[in-house]
Design a protein that fits this description.
heterodimer; A: Transcription Regulator spoIIAA; 3 helices; B: 2 domains; 11 helices; 84% helix
């Protein structure tokens, strides 16, 4: 199961396992982001390569206008994955 | 119309098509320098063909028409294929679209030299000569692209490159070339046919290549991460990798078996990094060579030397399915 939504404070919250099939949903929500935004990954259990691609795509677009995504509450599992694929320097991970 | 204008008119659309292929490739895995080398390899193949064809025709005693239809395509396709097959053999290409682009570049280099020669001796009207030469240029590019795609696809199925890969790949290139030579009745119709067929063919290749790449990224990244977690968590001894390595302890000293596990871990780590580079490239990031990756590649080489040839052969069943490792290492060394 996977869920992505905007919280009351404007953060993007992802929950569950971000499988390949969920990538269009993630892309759609991220496409609506036009300014710097926090992405809460506290309850993200898994992220597929297409999910990573969707985050990268949004980050690249936002960085062009001086903005960016900040990943917060990142689990060790997801943090390791970001480090291993070399995305740790692309995102602000807290 | 001067010869140089005729050559440019012939070759320019083919070069423009090649450039458009490069632009359309979302992962940009073909480096411009390699494209240039492919073009030069094609040009060298054309010079060699001119020489070989002249001698072989005399030796066989065939008339020019029969030689051009049946023997010349074989000579030319083999010579054009050398560079692309070398790239496939050394795992410098890993996806159909890259094999297609580099094959087309080789064919284009060949066609540039050939059109210089052909347009100089063409007995037809200037327009007919240009159309015929253009058709031939497109055919050369396409035939070598197809050879590259078939060779790559079969090399992944059979893991290595041998006659099971080379014969079908060259046969398809030869068939395309010989068919073109047989059917070239009207230059206008031929060019029209190619203009319709070629974009469709490459569109299909791009789609298929994209599917292969994304599928590989998806499944590869997941399984790499699982393998890495398994190794790091110490649960490896219960897995098929652990059981296989334990069996090797009977034949190799413990430190060598330990190094084998390090090799496997490092390969998986580098593989994940390469997949990350691909994702970054797809998103439009420029990814410079990372000194950390270079250091890991050096460490891997050192470990592989330490394990030795016999050790690496013993590890083969564990690494056999990792057919793109060598290509990934090229990617990490040179973007």
């Amino acid at each position: 199961m996977f869920e992505i939504r905007r919280s009351e404070n404007g953060d993007i919250v992802m929950r569950g396992g971000l499988q390949t099939a969920h990538a269009p949903e993630v892309r759609k929500l991220l496409a609506s982001v036009t300014e710097s935004c926090r992405v809460d990954l506290a309850e993200l259990e898994y992220i597929s390569s297409l999910g990573l691609g969707a985050l990268l795509e949004a980050q690249k677009r936002l960085q062009k206008s001086g903005h960016g995504l900040t990943l917060i509450n990142v689990s060790n599992h997801v943090r390791d994955l970001f480090q291993l694929v070399g995305f740790a320097s692309i995102f602000d991970i807290r | 119309m001067s010869l140089s204008v005729r050559i440019v008119t012939t070759v320019l659309p083919v070069v423009a098509f090649l450039v458009s292929l490069l632009v359309l490739d979302s992962f940009k895995l073909v480096r411009p320098v390699r494209l240039l080398i492919a073009g030069l390899a094609g040009a060298a193949a054309a010079f060699a063909s001119l020489f070989l064809n002249a001698h072989l025709q005399t030796a066989l005693g065939w008339d020019l028409a029969a030689y051009a239809r049946f023997a010349a395509p074989a000579v030319e396709e083999v010579l054009k294929a050398l560079f692309v097959v070398h790239l496939v053999r050394t795992r410098r290409v890993a996806f159909p679209v890259d094999a297609a682009i580099l094959g087309f570049a080789t064919g284009t280099g060949f066609a540039i030299v050939e059109s210089m020669y052909f347009l100089n001796v063409c007995p037809l009207s200037p327009l007919e000569c240009i159309l015929r030469s253009f058709g031939t240029a497109v055919m050369h590019g396409t035939a070598t692209a197809v050879v590259g795609i078939v060779a790559l696809t079969l090399s992944e199925r059979f893991v290595s490159i041998g006659s099971r890969v080379l014969v079908p790949a060259l046969a398809v290139g030869y068939a395309a070339h010989a068919l073109f030579n047989l059917l070239i009745v009207s230059p206008v119709l031929t060019v029209l046919g190619l203009v319709i067929v070629l974009p469709v063919l490459f569109l299909l290749v791009f789609r298929q290549s994209d599917r292969v790449l994304h599928n590989w990224l998806r499944t590869g990244l997941d399984s790499d991460f699982e393998t890495l977690e398994m190794i790091d968590s110490g649960e490896v001894s219960n897995s098929h990798i652990g059981k296989y390595l334990a069996a090797l302890k009977e034949s190799f000293p413990p430190e060598v078996v330990g190094n084998m596990l390090c090799i496997l871990r490092l390969r998986v780590e580098l593989s994940m990094r390469a997949k990350g580079v691909l994702l970054l490239k797809e998103a439009g990031y420029t990814v410079p060579v990372d000194p950390e990756d270079t250091a890991k590649l050096e460490e891997l080489q050192s470990l592989e030397r330490n394990v030795g040839r016999a050790g690496m052969l013993a590890m083969a069943p564990l690494l056999r399915w990792r057919t793109r490792d060598a290509w990934e290492h090229h990617l990490l060394r040179k973007r």
